[in-house]
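[Discussion] Sanity-checking designs against the backbone

I'm trying to build intuition for which residues belong where. Below is a C-alpha cell string of 87 positions. I'd appreciate it if someone posts a full sequence so I can compare it with mine line by line.
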C-alpha cells in the first residue's frame, strides 16, 4: 500500500515468530501485517504502564526518604557551608 510514512523490515526471528503466533491466537483471521500493527499497539500500551509505574515508584521512594536527614543537619547548615567557599 502506498504511503509517505517511513517503513522498515522485520526479520522473523524466533521471538517475532512467537509473538505473531500468539497474536494470531488472540486475533484469528487477521492478516499478518495487521497483527504486527496490533502487537506494536499492545506493546506501546504496556510500556506506557511500566513507565508510569516506575515514575510512581520513584515518587514513593522520594516521599519515603524525604526529611530522613533532617536530624543530621542543623538549620542553616547549607548556608554556613556555602559561606566557607569564595565566589
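Best answer:
Here's mine. Compare freely.
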Amino acid at each position: 500500500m502506498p504511503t509517505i510514512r517511513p517503513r522498515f523490515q522485520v526479520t522473523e526471528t524466533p521471538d517475532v515468530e512467537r509473538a505473531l503466533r500468539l497474536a494470531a491466537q488472540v486475533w484469528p483471521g487477521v492478516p499478518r501485517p495487521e497483527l504486527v500493527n496490533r502487537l506494536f499497539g499492545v506493546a506501546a500500551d504496556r510500556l506506557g504502564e511500566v513507565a508510569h509505574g516506575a515514575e510512581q515508584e520513584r515518587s514513593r521512594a522520594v516521599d519515603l526518604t524525604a526529611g530522613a536527614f533532617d536530624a543530621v543537619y542543623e538549620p542553616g547548615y547549607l548556608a554556613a557551608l556555602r559561606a566557607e567557599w569564595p565566589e
